[in-house]
Design goal:
two-stranded antiparallel ribbon, six-stranded mixed β-sheet, alpha+beta, Peptide Methionine Sulfoxide Reductase, Chain A, globular
């Protein structure tokens, strides 16, 4: 059985790359959530006027990967203390947010925020937002790191340090380390 969780932690290319390396993750889809414009495009979302966040929807096997562990990886591999930004990406579309599908997910997400806050020097600003319509991103955004990211200077600057953190802090969860 596959469970799904939706999170936003800045650029979806970067968060997608991290979770594709996590044991127990079965699928990662980049997309948009939390906005008001139906069927938004990447250009519209990047403009910051739709209210959507760049996000990922993660399909995972709960027998291999607990939701709490997945969320701990999420909080450790982006900066949940930056309001409406991740590094040089600025705007509400790059906010740190979680979108619970039900009350049980919301409880897990709030507990993960508390765990992250215990380890953070600054306040966690991750928002818990209502689940809304999920819009998959355009095809060229899917599997971006594998298909195009290694020739993109932005991705080369941002993704390898995130993967390094995953592989160091969560070695038992990394496909690359286990291989």
């Amino acid at each position: 059985m596959t469970d799904y969780v939706t999170v936003a932690g800045g650029c979806f290319w970067c968060t997608e790359a991290v979770f594709k390396d996590v044991i127990g993750v079965e699928s990662v889809e980049s997309g948009y959530i939390g906005g008001s414009v139906p069927n938004p495009t990447y250009k519209q979302v990047c403009g910051g006027d739709t209210g959507h966040a760049e996000a990922i929807r993660i399909g995972f096997d709960p027998e291999q990967l607990a939701l709490g562990d997945l969320l701990d990886i999420f909080f450790a591999t982006h900066d949940p203390t930056q309001l409406n930004r991740q590094g040089n990406d600025v705007g509400t579309q790059y906010r740190s947010a979680v979108f619970p599908a039900d009350e049980a997910q919301e409880a897990e997400m709030r507990a993960a925020i508390e765990r992250a806050q215990a380890d953070a020097a600054k306040p966690i600003v991750t928002t818990v937002e209502p689940m809304s319509i999920w819009y998959p991103a355009e095809g060229y955004h899917q599997d971006y790191w594998e298909t195009s990211g290694r020739s993109n200077p932005y991705c080369m600057a941002v993704i390898p340090p995130k993967l390094q953190k995953l592989r160091k802090s969560f070695a038992a969860r990394s496909r690359a380390v286990a291989a």
